[in-house]
Amino acid sequence: WLNEHLGWAGVVLHDGTTTFDTVPDQWQSAVNWMQDLTNWQDWQASCYVDAEKPMDDIEADAPYLLIPLYNQGVTYGIVLLAGGTENDISAYLLTSLLANHLHQLATLQSVDNNTSSRMTLLADILEITHNQDLPLTDVLSQIVDHSGKHLGYTGVKIYLLNHNKTEIICTTAYAKQGNAEPDSIGTSFNPSHWAWQILAEVQPLYLNKRPEGAMYEALDWFDGVKELGLLPLYVGRDEIGILQIQSEKAGQFTASEKQLL
Fold first, then answer.
1. What is the helix, strand, coil percentage profile of the chain, to 5?
2. How is the beta sheet containing 168-175 ordered, strand by strand?
3. If you ran DSSP here, which 8-state letter would residue 247 be given?
4. Cβ-count burial of 42 within 10 angstroms (0-12 exposed, 13-18 middle, 19+ buried)?
5. What residues contact 163, with CB distance under 8 A and at least 6 apart?
6. Per-residue pLDDT tens digits for 46-59
7. Which residues have CB under 8 Å from 103's CB, separation 6+?
8. Spatial separation of the C-alpha atoms in residues 170 and 253, rounded to whole Å
9. For 45, phi and psi rounded to 5 degrees?
10. Integer Cα distance of 208 and 20 in angstroms
């Protein structure tokens, strides 16, 4: 995916395994550096290299990003993304999930049954968000639909703040077949709505029963729902909305699921 969408990419693992078949000339010195494991085996943070930020004796004819596959105190490998920007969230998200999976394999932990579904979901979302021809509402709608279907959620909604942050609006929604979708898309809510409390708390809220209080009377809770997640959406420190997720599965929100969300 990185090769196809962001630039030439490759991986070297701590056991010497690599994904490099052929290496373009301009990246050969960087790849040679990566193949000496002592250069990065203690790395925990990424490094952006260009002509203004050279590293060691490597000449940077073009910028690239080096991201260690670090998880639970171990660096399992390193990824080179040629031409990558210093703050490319797609690259960091993919490498974080890969490092987590490598840790599970290395420690013989059982891999969640949902691992492949989550990776498929992530690939779909990255495809959707890189389609510049789609309007935002269509992008959000597709993300919500894919999230619900791949991860088995009963319902998913996205609420977004308006530009002056006086109203929060239900922008898009998904409901599992057989669950009637409340007619709330496009509905705006004033500051007495539960969504404002979630934004004020900043931290995600995971529930296994409907909360009490008048504020939560408007909270959707389908029949059969065992758990519900309410996650504030931020860009930096700027709040932009809320992600609401309903699940009929008790114990849906495992630690890895919360990390993905």
1. 30, 25, 40
2. 188-189, 168-175, 155-161, 238-247, 227-235, 205-207
3. E
4. exposed
5. none
6. 888 876 776 766 66
7. 71, 72, 74, 76, 109
8. 23
9. -120, 155
10. 47
87 Cβ contact list (under 8 Å, min separation 6) = none
**Edge-first strand listing for the sheet containing 9-13:** 9-13, 74-82, 64-71, 47-49
For every residue of 130-157, DSSP letters joined together read T-TTS-HHHHHHHHHHHHHHHHT-SEEE
Token readout for 210 is 């409907």
> How many C-beta atoms surround the C-beta of residue 182 within 10 A?
15
- Token readout for 31 is 């790849």
Write out the H or E segment, with its range, that includes residue 62: none
Question: What's the CA gap between 82 and 170, in Å, rounded?
Answer: 39
pLDDT in tens, 179-227: 545 556 667 766 667 778 788 877 888 988 887 777 777 777 777 888 9
Distance CA 258, CA 100 (A): 13
Per the listing, tokens 């909604």 go with 157
CA quadruple 36, 106, 124, 6: dihedral, nearest 10: -10
Token pair belonging to 258: 């919360």
Tokens 């990246």 sit on residue: 27
Mutual orientation of helices 136-151 and 115-129 as an angle, nearest 10°? Answer: 170
pTM: predicted TM-score of the whole model, two decimal places? 0.60
Distance CA 60, CA 64 (A): 8
Collapse the DSSP code of 58 into the 3-class scheme (helix H, G, I; strand E, B; otherwise coil) and give the result: strand
Token pair listed for 61: 């004819």
